[in-house]
Amino acid sequence: MQTFFPKIATILLAISAVAFMGLSIAAYYGRPDPISEMLAPEVKNYQFKAAAGETTTWEVTPIVGENRSPKQHPNAYAAIADAYRMEGQRLGGLTTQWSDLATQLREQITSIRTRQQLDADALKQRIDTLSQLVSNAEANLQNLSKQLQAVTVDTTIVRDDTTKRRQDVMRLQNELEELRTDKFRLEEIRRVLSDRLLRLQLENQSLDQRLSQMNNLASQ
Question: How far from each other are the two terminal CA atoms of the chain, in whole angstroms?
Answer without folding.
Answer: 46
